[in-house]
Specification:
alpha/beta; 8-stranded parallel β-sheet; 14 helices; 13% strand; globular
Length: 274
């Protein structure tokens, strides 16, 4: 099992990046510096719209289950509208332009980025830096024209701009578990020749853990089991259990400084490009 300190991880990441083989895979934690609305706020809003006390509403299911219930009996378009308004406000745009993590990400010459985030700030940071961007979420996106030299930002759980791509409810997550959507097909191809750097996820995120499991299965199915490319997971607290579990998925853990989480992520990204 491998738990890497930053100094140990940087040469490995630089090598992958220098060969054009490193792909970031970004989760909600990456957007923490932007102070976006969290799931608790969204659940509370749904509860009030349905006439529930927010604290009582949370007792009736996990977020994806409650979102599914809201889709059935409430106004899901309202939820998408509120998420769009909250995630992509003028205040969050100002925060993004001042965010060291987003600046450090955009300073590197990525050809591909994956994110499970619904907000527009990953692609926004690239555009702030003058990079052409191709946002890919739907089948039409993958089939359509792209900017030459653009970074492909693959919205793995969809984008708020296209309601039918959003993976938010329990049913939507279940439907995606076969990993047969266009974004999944692209992931299969990228797995053959790239290493992934996961940032902004927690060990308890069941959805990303399922993706890791499926990525491992896909590598094995492609005949890459003998020497699969390493993936890396940046965290602020590895603990004794997770390194053993992630080793079987060929994922090395990078231990970052927990005293200032955003600064440590920015430092990691800045060192990759040095």
């Amino acid at each position: 099992m491998a738990v890497l300190e930053l100094a140990q991880a940087v040469p490995l990441l630089r090598k992958e990046y220098g060969e054009g083989r490193l792909i970031p895979f970004l989760g909600a934690g990456f957007s923490k510096p932007l102070n976006l609305p969290d799931w608790g706020e969204l659940i509370a809003d749904m509860a009030r719209r349905l006439g529930f006390e927010p604290d009582l509403f949370t007792l009736h299911g996990d977020f994806d289950q409650l979102a599914g219930y809201f889709e059935e009996v409430g106004d899901f378009e309202y939820l998408v509208h509120e998420m769009t308004r909250g995630f992509n406000s003028l205040e969050s745009e100002k925060s993004r332009k001042a965010s060291r993590t987003h600046q450090a990400l955009a300073a590197l010459r990525w050809h591909t980025l994956y994110t499970t985030n619904f907000d527009f700030h990953v692609e926004g940071a690239l555009k702030d830096a003058g990079r052409p961007v191709n946002v890919l979420a739907s089948f039409a996106d993958f089939q359509g024209p792209r900017l030459v030299g653009g970074c492909d930002v693959i919205k793995f759980h969809g984008t708020l701009e296209k309601r039918n791509t959003i993976v938010l409810t329990e049913k939507a997550f279940f439907d995606r578990m076969t990993l047969e959507a266009p974004a999944d097909q692209r992931l299969r191809a990228d797995l053959l020749s790239h290493s992934f750097l996961f940032i902004g996820y927690s060990f308890s995120d069941t959805n990303i853990r399922y993706i890791w499991h499926r990525m491992h299965q896909l590598r094995k199915g492609s005949g890459a089991a003998a020497s699969p490319r390493k993936c890396f997971f940046a965290t602020h607290g590895a603990g004794p259990v997770q390194p053993t579990l992630l080793e079987k998925w060929n994922i090395d853990i990078i231990q970052l400084d927990p005293s200032d989480k955003s600064a440590s992520v920015a430092d990691l990204l800045q060192r990759i490009g040095v």
